[in-house]
Amino acid sequence: MTRVFNFSAGPAVLPEEVLKQAAEEMLDWHGSGMSVMEMSHRGKEFTSIIEQAEADLRELMSVPDGYHVLFMQGGGLGENAIVPLNLLGKNNKADFVVTGSWSEKSIKEAQRYGDIKAAANARDASAAQGKFTKVPAFADWQVRSDAAYLHYCGNETIDGVEFFDVPDMAALGAPDVPLVVDMSSHILSRPMDISKYGLAFGGAQKNIGPAGLTVVIVRDDLLEQAQAVCPSAFSYKLVAENKSMYNTPPTYSIYIANLVFQWLKRQGGVAAMEKQNVAKSELLYSTLDASEFYVTHVEKAHRSRMNVPFFLRDESLNDAFLAGAKERGLLQLKGHKSVGGMRASLYNAMSLAGVQALSGYLKDFEKSHG
Ligand code: PMP
């Protein structure tokens, strides 16, 4: 068996220990005589799995009292509709900060449901490469003080722009506006203060587990302001009241997520992950920075630790670069089709050894082609 170094942006690498445990438990979970996939979601076996998953996630993320943790479906793009449907019942208004491709999709989708405005937009339409390279200064954000919420994307997976500070809504003149954050691609990568948010969501297929599961953490008071048309299966209130069992949840994805949460706890939790993620991303960025052969565009203060987009100055070498990487077992380095170039995703389950191998390859490829 050969495992590669998988730099995919998602679905992405999972811890090998988790995959092995899932393989061992595939045919007979804990003496039940069946696979988790085959169990009733309402039986005592699966109930114990989902309860453990919620408890572990609460512990890992230090989720305060007064928040519900929901296991839903629909992914990040689903949430782009599900959030407005659940929150815009208040007064129909919400504001968005656009820092990359995903928040741009979020604002467009929300515009179907209410009066939506951009509080700030970092798009540089004139740039040939690197249309999104920064988080606009908080002081420049125009937030309506009566908005039902302010949405931003904490880590732009395609553009490689990450927020390292949480906006202070009082300083923005909107102390009562809850923050909604898309954490799809950096959830569990470092400690985050959930009490600063009204709602955080993330698709599982990067730092949590298999696709199909969406985690939503929502402050209790926000369960009460859905639009009348909000679908029942996507109503946070109904899902919360039914402990994520209003309809059949993605049971196998929740089971694997739980194994990942246990693995994370064995590693020392999110503080230990942050140390590793800093070390991995610094190694890669310093390799790129030391070279004239490679180009990055994102401002240093906002460079994502999870997703590192970069370009070869001579783009005619792209295919040779990817072919050589593949020969060394370094896979899925092609950039998102909308921006081109390369991208290395360094989620929790990517080892430092993987980033060292990539860094070595970057230097060797430059030597042979520079
Ligand atoms: N938001 C972010 C930050 C993402 O990275 C992604 C997926 N790459 C999405 C939303 C969309 O997620 P999904 O494909 O699960 O709908």
UniProtKB/TrEMBL annotation:
It comes from the Bacteria. Keywords: Amino-acid biosynthesis, Aminotransferase, Cytoplasm, Pyridoxal phosphate, Pyridoxine biosynthesis, Serine biosynthesis, Transferase. InterPro entries: Aminotrans_V_dom (IPR000192), Aminotrans_V_PyrdxlP_BS (IPR020578), Pser_aminoTfrase (IPR022278), PyrdxlP-dep_Trfase (IPR015424), PyrdxlP-dep_Trfase_major (IPR015421), PyrdxlP-dep_Trfase_small (IPR015422). SUPFAM superfamilies: PLP-dependent transferases. The modification N6-(pyridoxal phosphate)lysine is found at residue 206. Pyridoxal 5'-phosphate binds at residues 102, 157, 182, 205, 247-248. Binds 1 pyridoxal phosphate per subunit. GO terms for molecular function: O-phospho-L-serine:2-oxoglutarate aminotransferase activity. Belongs to the class-V pyridoxal-phosphate-dependent aminotransferase family. SerC subfamily. HAMAP family: SerC_aminotrans_5 (MF_00160). Catalyzes the reversible conversion of 3-phosphohydroxypyruvate to phosphoserine and of 3-hydroxy-2-oxo-4-phosphonooxybutanoate to phosphohydroxythreonine. This is Phosphoserine aminotransferase. It comes from Uliginosibacterium silvisoli. The lineage of its organism: Bacteria, Pseudomonadati, Pseudomonadota, Betaproteobacteria, Rhodocyclales. The gene is serC.
